[in-house]
Amino acid sequence: MKTKNLAISAIVLALLVGIIVVANVLSNRGPSAAAQQVFPELSEKDISAFNIVTDDEGVRVYKEGDRWMAVKLTSEQEQTAGAASDTSRESAAPVGGTGAAATGEFEPTGKPYPADSAAVATAVEKIATMERDVLISQNPEKQNVFEVGKEKGTLVQVVGDLA
Predict the structure, then answer these.
(1) Contacts of 112 (CB under 8 A, 6+ apart)
(2) Does the reported pTM lie above 0.70?
């Protein structure tokens, strides 16, 4: 009788261990790499420009031929009449933010300069391979606490040549 109870106990223990192992393996499975990417169909060669904008100013980095150029962006509110220089790039309208960042009222000001190609290559690579991370909060009231809201956030806007 004791041998029979011992055999049943061993079988039950083996089943419990098996269930725990299977549950652990299934809980550690995350989404696929493609599901983690923010822009799964975007590659580095598709990015032709990007803007980095705070509330009232920013910078546009754009490709001109084989070189990357950088030009300062200033809100129309801060520009004096006639101070904006003419460049071949249109102002893109950022989403979100306050002031000029909310309406996209940015214009290139000043002379464009060659950008550091290594830094631009790193930025473009990081944009193209950006992955979703843990969502901390969906509450809009907490955005400023995490410095991603209208008051403290920085907007990065990507312009691509997607065909």
Answers:
(1) 64, 69, 70, 71, 87
(2) no
